[in-house]
TrEMBL record:
Protein name: Alpha/beta hydrolase
Organism: Tessaracoccus rhinocerotis
InterPro entries: AB_hydrolase_fold (IPR029058), DNA-binding_regulatory (IPR052920), Hydrolase_4 (IPR022742)
GO molecular function term, any single one: hydrolase activity
UniProt cross-references to Pfam families, sorted A to Z: Hydrolase_4
SUPFAM superfamilies: alpha/beta-Hydrolases
Alphabetical keyword list: Hydrolase
Positions of the Serine aminopeptidase S33 domain: 77-182
Length: 299
């Protein structure tokens, strides 16, 4: 019996260590700095789009970098927000497309990515400061412009949380946002055939102890209703394996009865709507911006 109890104790300890290791790895995956090397990316130069390099600073002092694609006569500036571990070059397709449609466009790197400096990273928590700083930059350069945000994945969740409090953002396009951080982490565990319990509570604890914020602080589902009456275009692929389509359904319901347009891309995976029909996607977003904020400048 003593041997059995001893073996059970070792097994319990092993399970506890494994759960703790997975939880710590989860927190690091969400927040830990990782930069690709070498950091070679395309720029607007390759697309024959004139641009200026811009530098600005987040409220907590993190230096940020971006590209300004200018239409001096446009009454609208569109800020494009990339996803987790992405960078501004990921936004060249939609960014250049909206510039050709007549809008000024700001593409920028969230902290710890691309040409921006290092700082505390997260999944849509600290990044809200970066998006607010991008809005500040637009206000400085174009005080009278109307501001829209076009955003993807983590950037879309960040944009929902930021726009809920920042009414300078007058229209929002959110492609593939998550509804709550805890649920998207749980979806990741399920994707790898791991039980979300007890991993989620332990990962949340590791996240709070190491990175300073709780999963419960990142819940776009609770804040999306505050965007109303400003227009919102919500986009999601029905076959999204990273952020399940159910997140979009929850967000669309929580955003009602505000002016919400909800477009589903059938048979499409995470953030895949653009790649299914690049021209059609740009036209969809440009038409939404036109109806929401007015005509752009003549291309």
């Amino acid at each position: 019996m003593r041997k059995l109890l001893g073996a059970a104790g070792w097994l319990t300890a092993g399970v506890g260590i494994g759960v703790g290791a997975l939880a710590g790895f989860t927190a690091w995956t969400l927040n830990g700095p990782r930069r690709p090397w070498p950091n070679y990316t395309f720029t607007p130069f390759e697309l024959d789009v004139p641009f200026d390099d811009v530098a600005f600073t987040a409220p907590d002092g993190v230096p940020l970098a971006g590209w300004w694609l200018d239409r001096p006569d446009s009454p609208i500036v569109v800020i494009c927000a990339h996803g987790h571990r992405g960078n501004k070059s990921d936004m060249l397709g939609i960014g250049s497309g909206l510039w050709r449609a007549g809008h000024s466009v700001l593409l920028f790197d969230f902290r710890g990515n691309g040409d921006s400096g290092d700082g505390p990273q997260s999944l849509a928590h600290h990044e809200q400061r970066d998006l607010s700083a991008a809005v500040d930059l637009v206000r400085e350069r174009r005080p009278d412009a109307r501001i829209a945000v076009v955003s993807f994945s983590m950037g879309a969740s960040t944009a929902i949380l930021t726009a809920a409090d920042d009414h300078r953002i007058e229209a929002l396009v959110a492609d593939s946002p998550f509804a709550t951080l805890s649920d998207v982490v749980a979806a990741g565990y399920r994707r790898h055939r791991l039980p979300s319990e007890p991993l989620i509570p332990v990962a949340d604890l590791a996240n709070r102890l190491r990175y300073g914020y709780a999963f419960a602080e990142v819940r776009p589902l609770d804040r999306i209703g505050a965007i109303s009456p400003r227009p919102l275009l919500l986009l999601h692929g029905a076959d999204d394996r990273v952020i399940p389509y159910s997140h979009a359904l929850q967000l669309a319901e929580a955003a009602a009865p505000g002016p919400v347009e909800f477009v589903t891309f059938d048979g499409v995976d995470h953030c895949g709507g653009y790649f299914e029909d690049r021209g059609g996607y740009i036209d969809l977003v440009a038409d939404f911006l036109h109806r929401s904020l007015g005509a752009p400048a003549a291309p």
